[in-house]
Structure to design on (166 residues):
Protein backbone atom coordinates (compact mmCIF):
# COMPACT_ATOMS: atom_id res chain seq x y z
CA UNK A 1 0.00 0.00 0.00
CA UNK A 2 2.68 2.48 1.04
CA UNK A 3 4.79 1.33 -1.89
CA UNK A 4 1.99 2.31 -4.28
CA UNK A 5 1.81 5.81 -2.82
CA UNK A 6 5.59 6.14 -2.84
CA UNK A 7 5.82 4.91 -6.43
CA UNK A 8 3.36 7.59 -7.54
CA UNK A 9 5.42 10.41 -6.07
CA UNK A 10 7.62 12.47 -8.37
CA UNK A 11 11.29 11.47 -8.23
CA UNK A 12 12.60 14.85 -7.06
CA UNK A 13 13.09 14.37 -3.33
CA UNK A 14 14.86 17.58 -2.33
CA UNK A 15 13.38 18.58 1.01
CA UNK A 16 13.65 22.31 0.32
CA UNK A 17 11.49 21.88 -2.77
CA UNK A 18 8.97 19.92 -0.72
CA UNK A 19 8.88 22.62 1.95
CA UNK A 20 8.34 25.34 -0.65
CA UNK A 21 5.64 23.38 -2.47
CA UNK A 22 3.85 22.46 0.75
CA UNK A 23 3.80 26.08 1.85
CA UNK A 24 2.81 27.57 -1.50
CA UNK A 25 -0.76 28.67 -2.11
CA UNK A 26 -1.11 26.77 -5.41
CA UNK A 27 -0.99 22.99 -4.95
CA UNK A 28 0.58 20.73 -7.53
CA UNK A 29 -1.67 19.66 -10.38
CA UNK A 30 -0.90 15.98 -9.85
CA UNK A 31 -2.36 14.61 -6.65
CA UNK A 32 -1.78 11.16 -5.19
CA UNK A 33 -3.94 8.97 -2.99
CA UNK A 34 -2.93 9.15 0.65
CA UNK A 35 -3.79 5.47 1.06
CA UNK A 36 -4.86 3.09 -1.68
CA UNK A 37 -8.03 1.99 0.14
CA UNK A 38 -9.41 5.53 0.41
CA UNK A 39 -10.25 8.36 -2.00
CA UNK A 40 -8.43 11.12 -0.10
CA UNK A 41 -5.93 12.86 -2.38
CA UNK A 42 -2.88 14.84 -1.27
CA UNK A 43 -0.24 16.98 -2.93
CA UNK A 44 2.89 14.85 -3.48
CA UNK A 45 5.21 17.55 -2.12
CA UNK A 46 3.24 17.83 1.10
CA UNK A 47 3.25 14.04 1.46
CA UNK A 48 6.99 13.95 0.90
CA UNK A 49 7.47 16.60 3.60
CA UNK A 50 5.26 14.64 6.02
CA UNK A 51 7.23 11.48 5.33
CA UNK A 52 10.50 13.29 6.01
CA UNK A 53 9.20 14.01 9.53
CA UNK A 54 8.18 10.39 9.90
CA UNK A 55 11.57 9.14 8.77
CA UNK A 56 13.46 11.42 11.17
CA UNK A 57 12.64 9.29 14.20
CA UNK A 58 10.35 6.73 15.69
CA UNK A 59 8.91 8.75 18.57
CA UNK A 60 5.38 10.05 18.98
CA UNK A 61 6.70 13.59 18.42
CA UNK A 62 7.86 12.78 14.87
CA UNK A 63 4.68 10.86 14.18
CA UNK A 64 2.69 13.88 15.39
CA UNK A 65 4.59 16.17 13.02
CA UNK A 66 3.89 13.79 10.16
CA UNK A 67 0.15 13.64 10.93
CA UNK A 68 -0.04 17.43 11.40
CA UNK A 69 1.68 18.03 8.05
CA UNK A 70 -0.74 15.69 6.29
CA UNK A 71 -3.69 17.45 7.90
CA UNK A 72 -2.34 20.89 6.91
CA UNK A 73 -2.13 19.68 3.32
CA UNK A 74 -5.74 18.50 3.39
CA UNK A 75 -7.47 21.32 5.27
CA UNK A 76 -7.00 24.96 6.23
CA UNK A 77 -6.87 26.27 9.82
CA UNK A 78 -10.49 27.40 9.86
CA UNK A 79 -11.72 23.96 8.83
CA UNK A 80 -9.59 22.15 11.41
CA UNK A 81 -10.65 24.62 14.13
CA UNK A 82 -14.32 23.88 13.55
CA UNK A 83 -14.20 20.07 13.37
CA UNK A 84 -13.48 17.24 15.81
CA UNK A 85 -12.26 13.68 15.42
CA UNK A 86 -15.50 11.95 16.38
CA UNK A 87 -18.23 14.58 16.14
CA UNK A 88 -19.15 14.00 19.78
CA UNK A 89 -19.21 16.61 22.49
CA UNK A 90 -16.17 16.70 24.78
CA UNK A 91 -16.89 15.41 28.30
CA UNK A 92 -15.43 18.61 29.77
CA UNK A 93 -18.05 20.66 27.88
CA UNK A 94 -20.81 19.06 29.94
CA UNK A 95 -19.55 20.82 33.09
CA UNK A 96 -19.50 24.28 31.50
CA UNK A 97 -22.99 25.88 31.43
CA UNK A 98 -22.25 27.86 28.25
CA UNK A 99 -20.50 25.09 26.30
CA UNK A 100 -23.15 22.59 27.41
CA UNK A 101 -25.75 24.46 25.33
CA UNK A 102 -23.58 24.61 22.20
CA UNK A 103 -23.79 21.81 19.61
CA UNK A 104 -20.89 19.39 19.16
CA UNK A 105 -18.44 20.10 16.37
CA UNK A 106 -18.97 17.89 13.29
CA UNK A 107 -16.53 15.04 12.68
CA UNK A 108 -13.80 15.37 10.07
CA UNK A 109 -14.58 13.39 6.91
CA UNK A 110 -14.33 9.66 7.69
CA UNK A 111 -12.50 8.84 4.46
CA UNK A 112 -9.74 11.35 5.21
CA UNK A 113 -9.52 10.36 8.88
CA UNK A 114 -9.19 6.69 7.99
CA UNK A 115 -6.67 7.42 5.23
CA UNK A 116 -4.49 9.38 7.67
CA UNK A 117 -4.69 6.59 10.25
CA UNK A 118 -3.98 3.78 7.79
CA UNK A 119 -1.16 5.67 6.04
CA UNK A 120 0.51 6.44 9.38
CA UNK A 121 0.17 2.87 10.60
CA UNK A 122 1.58 1.45 7.36
CA UNK A 123 4.38 4.02 7.24
CA UNK A 124 5.51 3.19 10.79
CA UNK A 125 5.41 -0.52 10.05
CA UNK A 126 7.36 -0.15 6.79
CA UNK A 127 9.97 2.42 7.85
CA UNK A 128 10.46 1.61 11.55
CA UNK A 129 9.30 -2.02 11.81
CA UNK A 130 6.78 -0.88 14.41
CA UNK A 131 3.16 -1.97 14.41
CA UNK A 132 0.97 0.66 16.00
CA UNK A 133 -2.79 0.57 16.62
CA UNK A 134 -5.16 3.20 15.29
CA UNK A 135 -5.66 4.33 18.88
CA UNK A 136 -2.11 5.70 18.76
CA UNK A 137 -2.88 7.94 15.77
CA UNK A 138 -6.30 9.22 16.90
CA UNK A 139 -4.90 11.44 19.70
CA UNK A 140 -2.45 13.00 17.23
CA UNK A 141 -5.32 13.99 14.95
CA UNK A 142 -7.30 15.32 17.91
CA UNK A 143 -4.29 17.29 19.12
CA UNK A 144 -3.86 18.99 15.74
CA UNK A 145 -7.56 19.89 15.64
CA UNK A 146 -7.34 21.29 19.18
CA UNK A 147 -4.18 23.25 18.36
CA UNK A 148 -5.89 24.91 15.39
CA UNK A 149 -9.03 25.59 17.45
CA UNK A 150 -6.92 27.27 20.13
CA UNK A 151 -4.98 29.25 17.53
CA UNK A 152 -8.15 30.58 15.89
CA UNK A 153 -9.74 31.31 19.26
CA UNK A 154 -6.64 33.21 20.40
CA UNK A 155 -6.57 35.23 17.17
CA UNK A 156 -10.24 36.16 17.64
CA UNK A 157 -9.61 37.18 21.25
CA UNK A 158 -6.66 39.33 20.16
CA UNK A 159 -8.80 41.05 17.53
CA UNK A 160 -11.48 41.78 20.14
CA UNK A 161 -8.85 43.19 22.50
CA UNK A 162 -7.59 45.53 19.78
CA UNK A 163 -11.14 46.68 18.98
CA UNK A 164 -11.86 47.41 22.63
CA UNK A 165 -8.61 49.39 22.99
CA UNK A 166 -9.58 51.72 20.14
Amino acid sequence: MLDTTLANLPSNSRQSAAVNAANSAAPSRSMVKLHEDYTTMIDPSALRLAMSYGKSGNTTKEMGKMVATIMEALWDKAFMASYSLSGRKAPSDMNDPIKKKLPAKPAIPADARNAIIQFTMKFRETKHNMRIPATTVNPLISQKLLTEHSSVKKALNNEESVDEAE
